[in-house]
Amino acid sequence: MGYKIFTQIDKDSEDKFSAGLYFDKNEQGKYEIFIEKKNLLNPENLVATLAHEFSHIKILGEKRLDFNDEALTDLTTVVLGVGIFNSNSAFKEHKTYNSYGYSSIGYLKQREWGYALALYAYYRKEENSDWIKFLTPNLKSDFKKSMNFISANLDIIFQEKYEG
Question: Residue ranges of the alpha helices (H) in the chain?
């Protein structure tokens, strides 16, 4: 797999930064992704970005779909077992002595990650698994709310809805 580090993919673009980009196979037949250099300063964001770009390889590169769906790409990280990194990166607060703020990467909101992870945990019978303790406090709250919702609504959660 090829890789390149960039800080600005196109100097004329209005969008100066992206956590990562997927470019399919290069001339040598190897998948090529770009990872934003600033991710090297934050290992959790780096893993989340790599997981997202690898999910593009699984979905688009392996021709499982013929269109790009970024939310589905984020959800794929859950199925691949690394969604905890992406979910924790969805909303991060930071404080210093003179500033306060938040950052986020990815396409899903924190509540969507909580629900996706809860469905994953329920399906795998991991409602009390060790990995849950590694969720950020705000995400763990959404995860627990989602687990409670799933438990209270089992009759409708996994029921297919047909329209016709």
Answer: 43-56, 70-79, 83-89, 110-123, 137-152, 154-157
Q: In 3D, which of 112, 39, 44 has the Cα closest to residue 72?
A: 112
**Domain of residue 45, residue span:** 2-109
The encoded tokens of residue 110 equal: 């924190």
Reference 51, options 88, 14, 26; nearest CA is 88
pLDDT of 58-73, one tens digit each? Answer: 999 999 999 999 999 9
- Give the SS3 label for residue 32: strand
**Domain tally, the chain:** 1
Is 84 within a domain? yes
Question: Does residue 20 fall inside a structural domain?
Answer: yes
Q: Model-level pTM?
A: 0.80
153 in a domain, yes or no?
no
